């Protein structure tokens, strides 16, 4: 018998380096010579794998849930974790309406529970006091619970309570610095207290304190109390400075028409620090006046972009009645619209309008502080800031009725379509008049529309959301005598442009 | 500020615009020039009976214009002191739509009067010595008497200060020597308020009124002038305002019969003149 050691061994292949490359790309792997490409390919492959795993998990979870939507399930309790600074009563006021809205169902199912969890999660996020809200559904731990009872646990993380910001801005002939502090969830009920103070060259001093709090459990209605004070230097167009101090209480809500604000405002205005060259009209307007007014504002903004929108529109309507005590007694109405559409090839055509009417009541003339002002780079371009309308000497007295419209064609810079710097051609028109209340109003309004001031020009637009900067060159085409027009270059910085 | 001159072609281009101009917007809210000179004053205490202002500075100039024989001067008291020339009242609004502060009023009066009405040298006083003496009386009235009047006035409440026009004077600048602050010298806090020496102010008022009364005597015009002078307008304003006050200041003046009689006579003259003007 022969042992295995006596069997002949199979022939071994002979290996002689360098070895030839016998691999064939199966997953589009790049050439091994380029290590960067290899790394990138590897990274993409990992991401693809993870995405696939995630999608398959989501699919499996979806199938699991869809297959059990009709399974009877009942929420035994709801817990919110990670909200030590939020009042229990406030959380209850948010959660209980969501739970009670599904109590009418005879046999609650998983589908009902998921809807409730989604509704509560959405409401908690709307409070703006949590940076993250993660709901989980777990078997109920209550002693008397059954298999159909579950606990819903929201693992939340509260945002920082205090936010402080200081900034310095320079532009449009104005420079200023501001300091803002915001206290979130002040009393544990999603209240926000904002304090802001600033100093500048035109708005000499400004301060406001604002306390907002939700009024309803849906958080769609907010209440706000605001105290404010600012001092504006109007020397360049009215030879005076204006100090404004007041309080405002408002309720804001949303409807299918848009965002509504109903407000009451009591304001103390003081015109003073007159220039030696101040006109007699401004001198007569000097002193302190009180306005006590209620107002309603509706804003409907469906635009996809405030400057180069391709769909939607912007509408703002403002109505104010003053005369609940104080010196001012008037009815005021203002409107503002904006619409823009893409024409293709990077061109955008936009049309904006503004109108306003102020009708004095009780036979009292309108007060300087309440009248409208018009003109300037953010208003009717190629006019001085607030330079349109009735004047006494060099002082703009403001008007009681105005309208303004602007048509603008915006395009890309040649060869630089991706730059935020755009070109535009514009035509602006408008007029500001005072009302003689001893005469019928409608003919005065018609006359206001019949003699428009018109300007035209071109310029560069730099959009740095939400601020817009314009450098324009233009001329007045038609204008009123002593109308305060400008010819040549004008620079504008602002949020809202005509 | 130096400006960069525009090139001629650009200037010519700009000259074309605007292509059409409308008439200027009518300014219904603009102030119309008055038909007659109008003095902007603080409101009278009793507008129904007298047009003399409740502020001694305004009364001075009302009396000055009246005693200089300027007739048809209207008054209005619905303009804030912040609207006056240099931010104070009175201010004279002329039909040419120009405004004059108190310091410009004498020159305007001189320019409107004929040679016969103008004050002769030395400024209407009997002698140059009387003119020089008048400066001392002006300092006394505008110092001690004015300080006593300001101290006697009640500080308006916050609501009153919003709705009623009332003059504000810097009491610290009127009292000599300057009063000490309310806070102590060793406090680290900034000094605030003033410690009004009421007894000292009261004594100085008595002394001043006694001196004025003795100097006036039974003269028709102060310092024995042949006609009314600027110091008469000043003296009338302070005596009138003191008699309108409701406290010790009035009693101090009322004890001097010659002052009361003189004030009554001059007031009749002044009111007769200013009642003819329009009021707004």
From TrEMBL, chain A:
Bias kind Basic and acidic residues: ranges: 26-38
InterPro entries assigned to the protein according to its UniProt record, in alphabetical order: Bac_surfAg_D15 (IPR000184), D15-like (IPR039910)
Biased composition (Pro residues): 7-20
Bilayer topology annotation: Multi-pass membrane protein
Top-rank lineage group of the source organism: Eukaryota
Domain Bacterial surface antigen (D15), chain residue ranges per copy: 185-497
Main location: mitochondrion
Gene Ontology BP, a term: protein insertion into mitochondrial outer membrane
UniProt keyword terms in alphabetical order: Membrane, Transmembrane, Transmembrane beta strand
Chain residue ranges for the region called Disordered: 1-38
Any single GO CC term annotated in Swiss-Prot or TrEMBL for this entry: mitochondrial outer membrane
Localization: Mitochondrion outer membrane
Short name of one Pfam family: Omp85
Assigned protein family: Belongs to the SAM50/omp85 family.
Protein name: Bacterial surface antigen (D15) domain-containing protein
Organism: Botryobasidium botryosum (strain FD-172 SS1)
Lineage: Eukaryota, Fungi, Dikarya, Basidiomycota, Agaricomycotina
Automatic annotation (TrEMBL), chain B:
Any single biological process term in GO: mitochondrion organization
Superkingdom of origin: Eukaryota
Segments forming domain Metaxin glutathione S-transferase: 206-266
Alphabetical list of InterPro entries matching this protein: Glutathione-S-Trfase_C_sf (IPR036282), Metaxin_GST (IPR033468), Mito_Protein_Transport_Metaxin (IPR050931)
Pfam (any one): GST_C_6
Cellular component, GO, one term: SAM complex
Record-linked PANTHER family: FAILED AXON CONNECTIONS-RELATED, METAXIN RELATED
Protein known as: Metaxin glutathione S-transferase domain-containing protein
